[in-house]
Structures are given as C-alpha cells and as structure tokens.
Amino acid sequence: MRRRGMERIARIAVTLALLVLPVIAAGAETPMRTWIAGVSIVSPESLDRIETGNVLIEGGRIALVDRGGKVAKPDGATEVNGKGKFLIPGLIDSHVHLASIPGAADPSSIKPEITKAYYEQLPRSYLYYGYTTLVDLVVVNRKVLEDFRRAPLHPDLLDCGEPLPFANGYPMNFAPPGVRFEPFPNFVYDTKHPEAIPSKYKPEDHTPEADVARVSKSGAVCVKTFIEHGFAADKNLPVPDAEILARIRKASTQANLLMMVHANSFDSQTSAVNAGSDIIVHGMWTWDSFETSQEVPPEIKALLDRIVEKKIGYQPTIQVIGGANAYFDPEYLKNPAILKVIPESMLEWFKTPEGQWFKKELAGPGASDAKMFEAIERGPTHRVRQVTAYLASKNANLLFGTDTPSGPTYGNLPGLNGYLEMQQLAKAGESLAQLFKSATISNAREFKIDSQVGTIEAGKVANLVLLEKSPLESVEAYDGVVTVWIRGKASSRADLAANRAGPR
Ligand SMILES: [Zn+2]
C-alpha cells in the first residue's frame, strides 16, 4: 500500500516535471527499453526467413530478436505495435555531399537564410527516407559535417576526408586557376606541368603518399580520387596516370582506407579497374568509342565481367543523370515530397530565373524541354541502365550510393534522391532483394561497419526503420516510412519532415 503510494507520488512528480520543464523532459521521452511487437523482420542476411516476431531495443542497441514471437514483453518496455508492418535495418547511402547546396553553384550564390535553413533540416531529411548511415565522399567544408554530427537527430556519418584531385583536373577545373588549389589541400602534384601550379605548393607535399597520410590522419575511412576527362565546355582535362593511381592504391591499402574512384566512362572505368580500386562511385553513362551502340558491346561487357569477378563495389548513381533531367521535366518541382526535405524558401528560389541558371548550361541551343528530356533519356540514361542491368544479372557487388547532390542540380535533394535512385535501379533491372542488400548489408560490409549496422541482429546499433509495406514486394515501400530509430531513439516520419508543424 505504502509502496503504491510512493509510486503514485513519483508518477505525479514526473507528470509535473513534464509540464514545467518541457526542455529537460525531452530526454525522458526516450524509453529505456522499446519492444517492437508482432512485426515482420526483414533482415538482409536471412531474406529466406521473413518471420513475424518481436525486437527489443535497450540502451541504443538491439538487445533481442525474437523470431516467431515466443518471448513475452519485458517489464518496463514501451511497446510499439508492429502488426502488419515491416522492420528493416536503417538504410546506408555511401555517396553523399553534405556541404553542397542543391541548385546552387556554391553556397554564396543563394541567400544565407536559405542555406542556414537547408543545413538545419539536412540530417532529418535523410532520416525522413530511412537513411541512418551516410558516407560523405568529398570534404570541402568540415564545419558543415561537424554541425551535422552535433544535430540532436542525425544519421551516423563517415567520410573520405579532403579528396585527391589531379592538379588542374576534375573537379578543380570548375574554379578559376588562381583560386582552385586552396579548396583542395590534397591535390596530386603534376610533375610534368609545374608551371600550372602556384609556386607555394611543393611537389613533396602533394605526392599520393603525403595526400593519403593527411586523409588518414583526418579520421577518414576512404580515399576519393577522380578519373574524369571532362564534359561539356571542359573536355581533355588532365587525369592521374597508371603510376599515380598505383601509388594511391598502395598508400590507401597501407593506411587501411578504401580507394573510391570517380569514373563514369568506359575508358576511365577501365583505368579504375586496372588500378585495383575498391569502389567505382558512378555508373557508366559514357561509352566513348561505343557511344552510338544501343546494346552493351562485348568490349564493355568484358570490363564489367572483371568488375564482377574482382567484386569491385559499384554505385550506378543513375539519378545523377535524372537530376540533370529534372530541369526538363515540367512535373519535377511540383512533387509534394520536395517540401518534406527542403525549406519552402529554397523551393521558391528554384522557381526564379536565378534558380534556373543551371538549366541554361544544360540546355542545347534552341532545344525544347521535351526534346532535351528525350535526348537525355535515350542517351546517357539508356546507357547507364543497360550497364546496371548487366551488372545486376551477374550479381555484381552493387552498393547503394546516390551522389546527393551531384553537381549544382536541384534534381538531387537529400533523402528524396535516395528514393528516386531506388526507383531508377529497380527500373534498370536490379531485383528488390539486390536493391535492399545494396543499401544495407553490402554497404555495411564494404565499409567494415557490419559488426555494428546493416542487419537486424542482437548486439547491433538500433538503427531501424519501420515500413508500412515490404521492400521485397515494391520499391514504393521505401516511401512508406512510419518510424525511424537512430541509436534507439524513435522519431515518427512526420516529425522529421521539413514542413512539420510546431517549433523547430
Ligand atoms: Zn559525388
């Protein structure tokens, strides 16, 4: 009796605390133990066993996976009714660029208050679509990453540190010669053209070995370099030769870092494969001398077979092309999902003449939107789909990575772009099981975080997503997020939306 009285007083005290101290009480809302009951457990290591059961979260980790539902709810656990729903591991996008602002040439070309609102929403936008782990491939602004990691709710974040572009090559070429070195402290010196490099940079500080050592010291998990001959106005860019690539490979191996290579043409992917890269971070939408071919020619198939055989990680990034084509799609900016992931002020800016600046760069002279859309679909999109279909048919080591945002397009918005990429991959011919694995266990294994995330198994971090439908039945299931747990803390989807009601 007395005990019950004490409990009542304690309960009243808690209730009062909730009323009086809403800020402090926010921590108390997180239950110590969560019991997700009667849910279909969809975990990539056992897709042959989709069973109904219960999952217990305790202290930010998965404490128990009760397949079959034989265990009773533990005392004190908060129950989440999972009946009729599907629990999956949090999704992993292993190719993002957090500091890049969609639709803007650089952050200074857009109003600072829009940039601020965008960055504040950014972590929630990825969570809104179920992404709980990200890899940023190109660190250009460390502060953005630090702010992201400090946000009250945010996906786990790995990075490749400052990248290794070849001197005056891609992507340094976007900036004028006088200012293009500063943002790339790990550029690789071009010993054949020292006259094209400011004299304050010494060759010995910019060898592949010195660059990789700095990347390693920064706490990165990967090294990013580029084999890009250029496109549009900037063709014939300098690229690293086989010797430079071999040295980057060797230094990365010694530092235990993954070697991730930007390459999207037949020639550059050939160099990336010859160099022994771990991951090719783009699909092949340029076929060089086979550009007019409608089917994958035997020469390209032979290269793709080597990619399969060597188990090289491959990110098709079809939405890079889709993101450019968004400028010619009259429906794109009308998608209501856009306001779930970016501030309204940004959408309004996209619609202004200044916000449409990139369209002028992409558009052919005198071509209508419809003609441009068709040309892109029939050209690069068709080619990258064919290559993806071939790799999927051979069960290649496909990794889910979106390249969000790829360049200055507004067609790749955080979170939403992952969903669009999934639709592209499914359309290209990846099976739903391949797609699911590529965004969970395959990424986790490749980045050596599979002891922590990537499956629903006891002991792993409780990064989980509750879906209305099965991701093995339709790609649209990924748009049916109900709840996202990040390190055991639950958020409803509505609370993650950019246009959510209530205080920020
Ligand atoms: Zn990228």
Helix content: 25-40%
* Percentage beta strand: 15-25%
Number of helices: 16
Tell me the distance between the termini.
44 Å
Q: Please state the overall shape, judged from the principal axes of the Cα atoms.
A: globular
Give me the Rg, rounded: 24 Å
Structural class: alpha/beta
- Please tell me the overall pLDDT: 93
Low-confidence stretches: 1-28
Number of strands: 15
The set of bound ligands, ions and cofactors reads: zinc ion
- Could you describe the largest sheet, including whether it forms a barrel? 8 strands, mixed
Would you give an account of this structure?
- The protein is an alpha/beta fold.
- Helices cover 34% and strands 15% of the residues.
- The chain has helices spanning 2-20, 22-28, 112-128, 142-150, 208-217, 242-254, 266-274, 298-309, 319-325, 338-341, 344-350, 357-362, 369-393, 416-428, 432-438, 441-446, and strands at residues 33-41, 51-58, 61-67, 78-81, 86-89, 91-96, 131-136, 156-159, 222-226, 258-262, 279-280, 313-314, 464-467, 481-486, 489-492.
- Strands 1, 2, 3, 4, 5, 13, 14 and 15 form an 8-stranded mixed beta sheet that branches.
- The radius of gyration is 24 Å and the shape is globular.
- The model is unreliable at 1-28 (pLDDT under 50).
- Zinc ion binds at residues 95, 97, 137, 403, 406.
